[in-house]
Amino acid sequence: MFTGTALFDLLLPGDSRSLKDKRGYLRPILAVLRKYEVSAAEVGDQDRHGRAQLGVAVVAADAAHVREILDHCERAVAGRPEVELLSVKRRVIGDDDF
Predict the structure, then answer these.
(1) Is 93 within 8 Å of 2 (Cβ atoms)?
(2) Residue 72: what pLDDT?
(3) Any residues with CB less than 8 A from the CB of 50 and at least 6 apart, and which?
């Protein structure tokens, strides 16, 4: 069994001046990520209007499959024209790592 996580640091557009505006940008991104059958949520910068951190977690039997899913998620977030992807931190952990 392998688990993978990714943390996406996002810069939101300048018109994101309220938490409601922020939610309007993040909700469609989270919906797209969940289509890859991952757990996805806003995990940081929740009180900042112009920034967001999204976390993704996936479990699979094969490390290559975990990496492939995380690659798809990263491309999905990076391809969103309304936000700027500042950084991505990824980690894959296997049974031997515990």
Answers:
(1) yes
(2) 96
(3) 11, 12, 14, 16
